[in-house]
Amino acid sequence: MASAVANPRPASSGIKRLFERFPFLPALMILAVLLALNGLYQPRSVSFIGMTGLVKTYLALIMLAIAQTYVVFAGDIDLSAGAIVSLVNVVIVVLMEQWGGSGLSVMAALGVGLAVGLACGIVNGIVVAALRLQAIVATFATSIFFTGLALYVLPVAGTPAPAAFWRTYGGRFFEIPFVLYAVVVLAMVIYVLARTRLATQLLAIGDDSQAAFQSGLPVTAIRIRGYALCGIFAALAAFCITGDTASGDPLVGGKMTLFSVAAVVLGGSALSGGFGTVVGSLIGALIIGLINSLVFFVGTPSEWQNLVQGLAILVALMAGVLVGRRARA
Amino acid sequence: MKKLTAICLSAVASIAISAFSANAEDFKIGLSNGWVGSEWRTQMIDEAKAAAEKWKEKGVNIEVVVQSANVDVPGQIAHVRNFISEGVNAIIINPNSPTAFDPVFAQAKEAGILVISTDAEVSSPDATYVGIDQKAWGAAGAKWLAETLGGKGNVVAINGVAGHPANEMRVAGYKEVFGQYPDIKIVNEVNANWDQAQGQQAMQNLLATYPDISGVWVQDGMAAGAWKSIMDAGKTGQTAATGEIRKDFIDIWTKDKLNSGASVNPPGVMASALNVAVLMLQGKELKEPATAGQYKNAMYLPIPFIDSKNLAEAATQLEGKPGYYSYTSQLSIEDAEALFK
């Protein structure tokens, strides 16, 4: 608002510019409303411990929503994101166990996990961008393939992660929970990435890939890089889920894929590409988490919970779209 | 509207009762279900709620809070965190993962909350499993099939979701039993993801590939589909196959005199778990500590079996129920009390 006041032009155009500059503002408002409602119905859920629990639980979805955002920027989609989470989860858990679970072996396993995520992303990128298959079908196919690999690595859920790993994720340093440090680092990484050429190039391709190609951008290579980045963030999501669940499960990420897409859209990004923010997706993931909790805290009877949850997500989507459109109009 | 009125009335009633019986014991129990894809789960929750109501006669007021929705693993971890925020006395969970809840169950225990898993075992040392032994479930069907076939013949198996712990345990169960019959040959095993349509499709393929199948070991949720293929192929008379516990299947079973047998995984397991939980909350101790199973924290419930001998009995229990209703059994309060000191 400060910029609107300082500006001699009518206030509405100031708001409009504010929404253009920060397309995730509607999502942020929804987030604030949801936080207030959660606090109203269950004060303990918005206490420091409650909020830490929320972040701890949904950091994985946040990471996966961020992963999804980079491919959505270019108008693509990655339906294998959840399967990559499962694969990286079982790979790092199995490696940590085989290598003895010391600090060094944990770090080495995480390194391998990042490489696996990157490799999956590059496979997706090649299939979609270089071989020109439809993203939605091709990544659906690779999702089955990645799940198959995960089942090969660990046929049935089990294998505990070393205590050193999950106690770090769930623990505190200097009285501050580890996940909050992770959020700060994540914020810095997002800030840096948003200023890289790659983010802009992905958006340009999503906006009009023909124009991007004609202006000399290596469209195929950039889309592959987008998928690679998606793979890396999916690996980070797997680290979070491993930290919160302390075990390997070859099916753990499967259901997260569509939630990650929903989070991206809730955050104000266009699935057609060319428009969106990573911060919005982060907020979108938190919105999904808060809706799930709120449905319970208001006392919805169990047989209605799925319905109410779905309706609430729809309402949040509509509110975001309407507010955003009104403000930009 | 009727439902809403009923909810309001029961809410008023429960407030009234709790106001009048200040001396009675009050417990708040959270039920978490992470998958709502089948009527079995709905029946599971309804039976658990009904079981909680029954405690009123004993002077124990139980408030049940339920979280039931299709969620991923983090979503169900959030269920548990919500219950901790809500301050429940006990959590009964049908978990989406056997191992993923270790840290959050540890938190619940620290907060003084009793955690019981049902239907699927969990690895957490801070939880107790109350439910059936899935391996014994698989073995019971296999034993029936092997005996029905007179110990010889070609058999196929149709399984659920690969990598799902209950599925793997059931598979281990039938493998062990068939291993004891040298003349029974498992010619193929396929996954049909606990889906009737996929089960039917898989059975069709199997019948086309192996004309000499005499036995089918198929899990519930797919058996009706598999049987449909068998009947369509005109092989009803020559095939023995495991079956389902749903009313609509039991009706067909009775009408067409199928050669079938069904291990029962009763939806009443959560109600049984609730009765056990209440007794534990009252500070009672189990006669035999729950130390069974691979995670050493399980208390196994009996597994009923339906075959031609008691089919009519099962049909009577299900009379007048909707087609999706499952044959059920549960530990009554008295049954559960007998297990405690």
From TrEMBL, chain A:
CDD domains per record: TM_PBP1_transp_AraH_like (cd06579)
A Pfam family of this chain: BPD_transp_2
Membrane topology: Multi-pass membrane protein
Chain ranges passing through the membrane: 22-41, 47-67, 79-100, 106-128, 135-154, 174-194, 226-246, 252-271, 278-298, 304-324
PANTHER family attached to this UniProt entry: ABC TRANSPORTER PERMEASE PROTEIN YPHD-RELATED-RELATED, RIBOSE IMPORT PERMEASE PROTEIN RBSC
Subcellular locations according to the entry: Cell membrane
Keyword entries, A-Z: Cell membrane, Membrane, Transmembrane, Transmembrane helix
InterPro entries: ABC_transp_permease
Keyword Transmembrane helix in record: yes
Entry superkingdom: Bacteria
Name of the featured protein: Ribose transport system permease protein
GO MF annotation terms: transmembrane transporter activity
GO CC terms, sorted: plasma membrane
TrEMBL record, chain B:
Cellular component, GO, one term: cell envelope
Major localization listed first in the record, in broad terms: other
Top-level taxonomic group: Bacteria
Compartments (UniProt record): Cell envelope
Family affiliation: Belongs to the bacterial solute-binding protein 2 family.
Matches recorded under PANTHER family: D-ALLOSE-BINDING PERIPLASMIC PROTEIN-RELATED, GALACTOFURANOSE-BINDING PROTEIN YTFQ
Identification of the protein by name: Ribose transport system substrate-binding protein
Organism of provenance: Neomesorhizobium albiziae
